[in-house]
Amino acid sequence: MTDVIRYPAEMSRIAGELRLRGNTIGFVPTMGALHEGHVSLIRRSVAENDVTVVSVFVNPTQFGPGEDYERYPRTLDDDVEICVQEGVDFVFAPQPDDMYPRSMTTWVEVGGDLVNRMCGLSRPGHFRGVATVCAKLFNIVRPHTAYFGQKDYQQYLVVRRLVEDLNFPMEIALVPVVREKDGLARSSRNRYLRPGERESALSLYRALTKARDAVLAGETDASALLALMASEIESAGAELDYAVVADPVTLEDKERVDGPVLLAVAAWVGDVRLIDNFLVDPPQ
Ligand code: AMP
Asked: What is the pTM of this model?
């Protein structure tokens, strides 16, 4: 049975009882509009824990002014249906006012170079919103393990840092990117794409595939890989936000590929901003 919990205090009480009874709690934080990507996180959690909690919360503090907070898809009934089918125990779907009461004045900010790159540059304040909501959700749900998708790889690293720096007694698990048949990374934002824009959106995957193949064929010059990714995306009519060849732990830019690398891109397709990445292990 799946229970839908609306209030932080109630979720908190339930989590406390679950822990007292010795259950392990797996947690999948989402903004809803659930798709196969979310489902793969949910399946991992259900397989690995006694109890799974999925949160559905479009977190206002991680959206900047002029971003898509208002139009972000909200499909709670469908989301609950998916959670029922997947054997989720609790859907935690709070209201913004209950997560962010007027009295609240505390923020959680991960510092350092992890957040001063990639999405952190194009979306100022985004990771402060992510870190704050994750800290709150972790304290409410008290998971043993929280599951994050590789599609938002920088977010995964930021949350890992948060958990380590603030001593949250929990694990963070990384789940691979789930894609459509043609390679497009599944995203709640894909539903904004107009029919003609889907082909353009696919250029992110093509850019990453070409760069990965070049690395596997022995290319070590990061500037050549960046040029390859940029030209694939721009020639498809999308507007490149960033392309990086980076260290997968620190996110520092690499000049040469001399070990495992993160290839990551962000681009605007019309008014939709999409991201994607590959982790690549070059031949020795
Ligand atoms: P969101 O609802 O977009 O905030 O995503 C919630 C969680 O699902 C995050 O940890 C995402 O990284 C993960 N996720 C979203 N899309 C995918 C995907 N295509 N494959 C794997 N995980 C995903």
From this structure: 0.98
